[in-house]
Specification:
Helix 1 packs antiparallel against helix 2 and helix 1 packs antiparallel against helix 3. About 90% of the residues lie in helices and about 0% in strands. The two termini are about 15 Å apart. The chain has about 110 residues and is mostly helical. The chain is built from three helices and no strands. The chain has a domain of about 70 residues.
């Protein structure tokens, strides 16, 4: 059991480093896509305010395309990213409890 707890603790310690390495690879692209999404959201609001259905429809399609592209290339913006983050926090808490239990409070 101690080996399992040690392996789990090691995995949880390395997981944030792996996530940070992955974020570093596409972070500039994610920031760029996020900036584009916010820009076109503002343009879409302007089109709605001017009551221009053609412009509104085209901007809506382009905005949906950008959001889908950002969700596929930037996992932190997808719906499952928040659930995975909560699961990681839960596993971290469980590993800390297991380490404390199996070391009889030494850790």
């Amino acid at each position: 059991m101690r080996h399992v707890a040690t392996l789990l603790l090691g995995f949880l310690i390395l997981t944030p480093d792996l996530a940070a390495a992955k974020d570093g690879q596409g972070s500039s692209e994610c920031r760029h896509l996020t900036a584009q999404v916010s820009f076109f959201e503002a343009r879409l609001q302007r089109a709605q305010a001017l009551d221009n259905p053609i412009w509104e429809e085209r901007l809506g399609r382009h905005l949906n395309h950008l959001i889908e592209r950002r969700a596929t290339r930037c996992p932190e913006y997808s719906d499952g990213a928040q659930a995975m983050k909560q699961l990681q926090e839960l596993l971290t808490l469980a590993a800390k409890g297991a380490a404390s239990f199996f070391t009889m409070g030494a850790y």
